[in-house]
Design a protein that fits this description.
Structural class: mainly alpha
Helix content: over 70%
Distance between the termini: 99 Å
Number of helices: 11
Order of helices and strands: HHHHHHHHHHH
Number of strands: 0
Amino acid sequence: MPTNNDTRIEYLGTNPSSDFPISLLIFVSLIAHWLVFFFLPSSITPLIKSYILSTIHASVSVLAVCFFYIRSSINLTQVNRILGGGFEGTYDEIMAYSICYSAGYFIHDLLIMFYFKSVRTSSAMFHHIVVLIIGLSGVYTRVGHTSQFLMLFEELSTIPLSLKAIYHHHHRIHEFLALLFAITFILSRLIYGTIICIFIFGAVPKFIQMATNVGDMTSIILIIIQMILIVTTRLLNLYWAVLIIRKMCAIFRRKKPSVSVKKIELDKKPE
């Protein structure tokens, strides 16, 4: 007869293990990001420094998810592989390391925003806080851990966004990166993110049923809170998408060649 612990494994998995050094890894990530920020040349503004670190974090996160997809036999319909933490001793363990690394980065970036007004934006701070709540609750409890890791692929659009800000003085590069940002935003945050969300919300009823069977109200409350926050991030992405589309339309309108009055007069047929 299966025990309550065996049933919990069916929807929570076993990763990360109870002795996994979560807090230590987050602290190391925080210090590492702070050191990189501090040792960057003083001639670089805090805003550009934050974009450099953002590019590094996004690149590492996207590569981690890609490596996971290549090496792991992920099953997005299996409850403990999409709303749990996966299994200890497999490639699922990369998820915990990646989440801890990202948590350290987001904490660092929030502190930088609080300290430097030039770096601070309300939407970015709100996004970081929501992502931190989801990520930390997942890595410490295993609830929603895999889904949070897979969502890190959305950072793909952050790479051209940050590079666009870094190369803002180079007009052609800036324009190319602006277009690349719009494309990657749609592909990663709207299309890819929506696909992952479909699998996430599809597994929620079974997760709640399994947790209810063993009286695990903590996991039920956590998954409901996480689902609310995930919906919030979806709405935030839609808001950003509207802003991006408006900006791109304005750029294309400015680029549209206008017919001069002189040309119109020349083109008129003589009467």
